[in-house]
Design brief:
Helices cover 57% and strands 15% of the residues. It has 472 residues and is of the alpha/beta class. The strands form two sheets. The protein has a five-stranded parallel beta sheet with strand order 5-9-8-6-7, with helices on both faces. A four-stranded antiparallel beta sheet has the order 2-3-1-4. The longest helix has 45 residues.
């Protein structure tokens, strides 16, 4: 596409890299404003804090709050230590139970159970035709047998003869009322059958414990007969065999889960106790003021730097000034003959030089090589051209520098110094007399609108634009 014969339809797009470097090159004002904001905000807040903390009422309130915090800390520590001791005791008891309990160490798939069924009969009879009947003590007698055999005092006697702890023996013994046939048929009516069951790891021990209980039945019979009423008791069934108890498997799993839960809770409580910290002592008003000054100083510095960066970004987006040579090429699709450093610039510091190298800008030491490159690019394009006008919106010194150098390098070609063809009348008059034009622009000096007007004038006079020389 020929930039001299078409209208500029370029849609401006922000180059993020250029924007970032535009901000970084302004590090000095950013740093200065950040320091000013930090001093103002931090100093002001520090002064106000010092004046506030120096008040006697405020100091007294701080002392009261500190004492309350210390008291709360001590209470929390005491409560946590008490909780930990209770949990440790519960863990020890649970571990001891799981280790010594016979029931917890039984295999649910191979349990030996000894069983004895006792039939209890009273002399109660229903008297036909009588309104008032004798009192039936059968249920009371059965309940008495069930309660006594299941009691801790009775099991202590049985456990002593079998060297078993009553706590663990109680889990092995079950006393039920009702016959097996009644339970299998789903009947809820209790019969005169009293069933005693004993579980153990082997048949011998199960039968031994059951025999010890049955031996005490005669003693219980005399006691209950005396206290409640006359009755007879007779053993109608004795058996011992292996069974599977799925309910026991669930119970064992629940007890293991309970132990693990206690251990997890202990770990959590110990961690919470370690996290408790003694309240720090009361800071003096100077220390509080210093902390506030530092905190708000940092905040002020960040806000100040952000404000400057924001305005730089706005300026960059709204500015019409040429920022980089590549933007000139992408906007107008023109030839870039070369890039030169601006002469007479003060020596840059380390940071500025480093940023220029990162951005890829030309250095002062590269002026001679860039000048030779410009001359070589023009030689490749001049053809039959005899006169070249050097003009542009750069500073007159920069335009004159390019013209003087090209006169030395391009012998046989008339190099005419024109200046700014938008403002200089002599430059405008020289324009028709020349065969082609080289425009000299300068970053942050030339504007895109001015460059577009220059190209329009060249196009109107049907002159050839060889390209641009840009000063950075």
């Amino acid at each position: 596409m020929d930039p001299m014969n078409t209208q500029n339809t370029y849609e401006h797009e922000v180059d993020l890299k250029d924007l970032i470097f535009a901000v970084l090159h302004q590090w000095k004002p950013i740093l200065a404003i950040a320091i000013i904001f930090a001093v103002l905000l931090g100093g002001g807040k520090g002064f106000l804090t010092y004046r506030s903390q120096s008040d006697p009422e405020t100091a007294a309130q701080k002392e009261e709050d500190y004492q309350n915090a210390v008291k709360q800390y001590e209470n929390d520590v005491e409560y946590s230590e008490h909780e930990i001791k209770n949990i440790e005791s519960a863990i020890e008891s649970q571990q001891n139970y799981l280790e010594k309990s016979i029931l917890m160490n039984l295999s649910p798939y191979s349990i030996y159970e000894a069983q004895s069924d006792l039939f209890i009969k009273t002399d109660y009879e229903i008297m036909p035709g009588m309104i008032y009947q004798n009192i039936d003590y059968t249920n009371t007698i059965l309940q008495a047998y069930q309660n006594i055999i299941s009691s801790t005092a009775f099991l202590e006697t049985i456990g002593a003869s079998n060297q078993l702890d009553p706590q663990y023996l109680q889990e092995l013994v079950a006393v039920e009322r009702g016959s097996i046939s009644a339970m299998e048929s789903g009947s809820t009516e209790l019969t005169n059958i009293l069933t005693i069951k004993v579980k153990h790891t082997n048949a011998e021990d199960a039968q031994k414990i059951l025999d010890s209980i049955v031996k005490q039945i005669d003693i219980l019979h005399r006691q209950i007969k005396r206290d409640i009423g006359d009755h007879t008791i007779q053993s109608i069934n004795n058996s011992c065999g292996s069974i599977v108890d799925w309910g026991l498997a669930d119970k064992q799993e629940q007890e293991m889960i309970r132990l693990q839960t206690l251990k997890t809770t202990l770990t959590e409580k110990e961690a919470a106790l370690k996290e408790l910290s003694m309240p720090s002592g009361i800071n003096s008003s100077k220390i509080d003021a210093l902390k506030s000054a530092v905190k708000y100083g940092v905040l002020g510095g960040v806000l100040g730097a952000f404000a400057v960066v924001f305005f730089i970004c706005v300026w960059f987006l709204m500015s019409d000034k040429l920022y980089s040579p590549k933007e000139l090429r992408s906007r107008f699709q023109v030839k870039l003959l070369g890039i030169l450093p601006v002469a007479g610039k003060p020596k840059q510091g380390f940071i500025d030089s480093w940023l220029n190298r990162l951005e890829g800008r030309v250095s002062q030491n590269a002026a001679d090589s860039e000048s030779q490159l410009i001359a070589a690019n023009i030689k490749n394009q001049i053809g039959s051209i005899k006169t070249i006008l050097i003009a542009g919106c750069a500073s007159p010194e920069s335009v004159s520098q390019v013209a003087a150098y090209l006169r030395e390098q391009l012998s046989g070609i008339q190099i005419v110094f024109g200046g700014n063809i938008l403002q200089n009348a002599d430059a405008i008059l020289k324009l028709p007399e020349c065969d082609s034009i080289v425009l000299v622009e300068q970053c942050r000096v030339s504007s895109y609108s001015s460059i577009e007007l220059e190209m329009e004038k060249i196009r109107d006079l049907k002159k050839e634009l060889l390209g641009f020389v840009v000063f950075e």
